[in-house]
Amino acid sequence: MSESNQRARRTCVSCGINISGTNAAAFKCPDCGAQIYRCAKCRKQSNLYNCPDCGFEGP
After folding, report:
1. Which residue intervals define the domain Small zinc finger protein HVO-2753-like zinc-binding pocket in the entry (predicted)?
2. Mind listing the pLDDT tens digit for each residue in 10-49?
3. Is the pLDDT of residue 5 over 60?
4. Which of 9, 20, 37, 46 is the most buried (most CB within 10 A)?
5. Contact 19, 37 (CB under 8 A)
6. Which stretches of the chain are assigned E, i.e. beta strand?
7. Cα–Cα distances in Å, from 44 out to 2, 14, 15?
């Protein structure tokens, strides 16, 4: 998959919006290491998120 296609598929794991070109955070799941993306709004509000791979829940 090309890098541009990967960017297009990046969505916030908390609210589901497309985070391409925004001030979003990308980090690895503390449990399984899967890549997780969160938008600035969800990070600021400390919305919960679930890892799509292992189900880990974090603030």
Report:
1. 12-55
2. 999 999 999 988 889 999 999 999 999 999 999 999 999 9
3. no
4. 37
5. yes
6. 25-28, 35-38, 49-50, 57-58
7. 31, 12, 13
